[in-house]
Design brief:
Distance between the termini: 11 Å
Number of helices: 18
Oligomer: single chain
Strand content: 15-25%
CATH superfamily of the largest domain: Glucose-6-phosphate isomerase like protein, domain 1
CATH class of the largest domain: Alpha Beta
Number of strands: 25
Bound molecules: 5-amino-5-deoxy-1-O-phosphono-D-mannitol
Helix content: 25-40%
Mean pLDDT: 94
Number of domains: 2
CATH topology of the largest domain: Rossmann fold
Structural class: alpha/beta
CATH architecture of the largest domain: 3-Layer(aba) Sandwich
């Protein structure tokens, strides 16, 4: 939820830290700060608002000429986004930045206050800092280890001590990697923040304490030194860069044909890499937000084609509800980041119940990627815009392949090879759709002043409506709702008035004519109906866009991108900060 970056080396780290913070700004952006350490002291500079405010403040400050630094971009949980609550926090000799939530902060704070500790902020982070300080008597590893035995919740900490010339870090249930440079080393919440400097990194397990100097990295578990493997990231610096695009969201939508081709090539040429679900009696797809909506498309395909009962659950509910696992069940976790707190908890719940888990994930270094029994990676590359587009589309593609393989294995799909051959045409067909971006801009120009927008569809079309509606809401702040087309007349149709925009998704042959009747119902009440369909024969009531036809398994992949573009253009026409919508963060690492 927050972004952390740290440096130790020979240079002054300001430029590196600011560059890293900008790359991590998608994780939270209500305030930010840095701490720089030289031989004698630690200097803190903090600001509310975007990173550029911090940058301006730094430019107007005499900054220490040190070579150790930590920095943070915040998504507020405990305490308002003020300078006092911004990170880093400093208690006596300990300065730290934090991503996560300390669940027993209140209890610890009360005890520390009784012992005379004074707190300057409302944050749980300052409490963690005070706990480490309490145990610090000159040995950082021991102090951090003792603190991790007491702190409950999730954390990734970057820590510096006034009297140590090293950088320290530890994590539990929050992402943090160690980057290995040339006579300099780094910590970061995400590899994209340091990919301009190195592609060598180490993954950290819970409560391993890291000690970095410019030419050495030591890792301790329970105060004993351990060894770690070095990994190489295969993302390029360009992938994490906006290039000439106005926004990352637009760039990422336009990248969809490319990442789709990359992902399909990897799996279509070797379908044994697609986990075989045909032996399960029941599937639970558990995820949040768009990943859950991708799951709903998967459910439709898995039930329809592979004849396996499939439930889709929101992870924040699943983790706490009573789940009766009385049949041979597979839990599929879908997550771009692989760090969504509720999805991680749902995965652990399944594992505690001895239920097999399969994860569909983008970030290879993530917790879900590491803990799930089986993983299918989606190869989207870095997705920086807070609103997911290309990663969502690839999640849908993988779920389609899972359904197809299972249907084939169960003898329910005779056209398996033809369908896979047809799937190879998807990137070209999608490119054709995206080339029509002006048409979607025109729709946006038509509707961007409207306050309410509706999306209607049935079955798999309804699942796409949910995603179209979410995209519009999150990046354009326009109220919108998605409805099963048949449900509209049970109440919501009262909201339809002259010129209310209604998007109708019509792709499923079985129920096309039913949705068409519902379209007539809203059109006759004055709605402007924007129909997105794969059927040229569907009647045009106001605007119609026909996507190329492709097999049922893959049709959603051609229909959702126009909805993503409409959301994008509406947000842009309203002049909004599309890549960083208000109140949101890319990776929701808190409950
Ligand atoms: O990283 P995840 O896929 O687990 O994230 C899940 C949701 O938080 C995410 O899809 C969210 O709904 C996005 N803002 C949608 O654009």
């Amino acid at each position: 939820m927050c972004g952390i970056i740290g440096y130790i080396g020979k240079k002054n780290p300001i430029e590196f830290l600011i560059d890293g913070l900008k790359k991590l700004e998608y994780r939270g952006y209500d305030s930010s700060g840095i701490a720089i350490k030289d031989e004698n002291s630690v200097q803190l500079i903090k600001s509310t608002g975007r990173i550029k405010n911090l940058e301006n403040k730094i430019n107007n400050t005499k900054v220490l000429d040190g070579n150790i630094g930590i920095a943070h971009t915040r998504w507020a949980t405990h305490g308002m986004p003020t300078v006092a609550n911004a990170h880093p926090h400093k208690v006596s000799k300990v300065t730290l930045v934090h991503n996560g939530i300390i669940e027993n902060a209140e209890e610890l704070k009360a005890k520390l206050m009784e012992e005379g500790q004074i707190f300057k902020s409302d944050t749980d982070t300052e409490v963690a800092c005070a706990v480490i300080n309490k145990y610090y008597t000159g040995n950082p590893i021991s102090a951090i280890t003792k603190a991790t035995n007491i702190l409950r919740g999730s954390y990734a900490f970057g820590i510096i001590f006034d009297d140590q010339d090293k950088l320290y870090a530890v994590r539990k249930d929050s992402p943090l990697i160690v980057g290995i440079g040339n006579y300099e080393n780094y910590i970061a919440s995400d590899i994209a923040a340091i990919i301009n400097y190195t592609n060598k990194y180490m993954l950290l397990n819970d409560n391993e304490v890291i000690e970095l100097s410019n030419d050495n990295i030591k890792i301790y578990k329970d105060n004993k030194e351990i060894k770690k493997e070095v990994s190489t990231a295969n993302i390029s610096a360009e992938e994490a860069d906006k290039g000439d695009y106005k926004h990352f969201m637009l760039k990422e939508i336009m990248e969809e044909p490319l990442v789709l081709a990359r992902t399909l090539n990897k799996y279509i040429n070797d379908m044994s890499k697609i986990y075989d679900i045909s032996g399960y009696k029941e599937i639970h797809i558990v995820a949040c937000g768009s990943a859950m909506y991708a799951g709903l498309i998967g459910k439709n395909l898995i039930e329809e084609k592979a004849n396996i009962k499939c439930f889709v659950e929101c992870a924040s509910e699943y983790r706490y509800e009573k789940v009766v696992y009385d049949r041979k069940t597979l839990v599929i976790l879908v997550s771009q980041s692989g760090e969504t707190a509720d999805t991680i908890a749902a995965m652990r719940k399944a594992k505690e119940n001895d239920i097999d888990t399969l994860a569909i994930v983008n970030v290879k270094t993530s917790t879900i990627a590491r803990e799930a029994d089986n993983v299918i990676f989606i190869e989207a590359g870095p997705e920086i815009a807070v609103a997911t587009t290309k990663a969502y589309l690839l999640q849908v593609a993988i779920l389609s392949l899972i359904a197809l393989r299972a249907a084939y294995k169960k003898g329910l799909e005779q056209k398996y090879t033809e369908i896979l051959t047809e799937a190879k045409e998807l990137p070209v067909k999608l490119q054709k759709v995206l080339n029509d971006h002006d048409k979607f801009l025109k729709i946006a120009q038509d509707i961007y002043k409207n306050h309410d927008v509706f999306y209607i569809g049935r079955g798999v079309d309804y699942a796409m409506c949910l995603e179209g509606s979410l995209k519009l809401k999150e990046v354009s702040y326009t109220h919108s709702d998605a409805y099963q087309a048949g449900e509209l007349k049970h109440g919501t149709i009262s909201l339809i008035e002259k010129d209310t925009p209604v998007f109708a998704i019509i792709s499923d042959d079985k129920i096309k004519n039913k949705t068409e009747s519902n379209v007539i119902e809203v059109a006759s009440r004055g709605a402007k109906v924007f129909t997105i369909t794969n059927d040229i024969n569907i009647k045009d009531h106001y605007f119609k866009y026909v996507v190329p036809k492709i097999d049922y398994y893959f049709q959603p992949i051609l229909i959702v991108p126009p909805l993503q573009l409409v959301g994008y253009y509406v947000g842009d026409l309203k002049g909004l900060d599309i890549d960083k919508p208000r109140n949101l963060a890319k990776s929701v690492t808190v409950e």
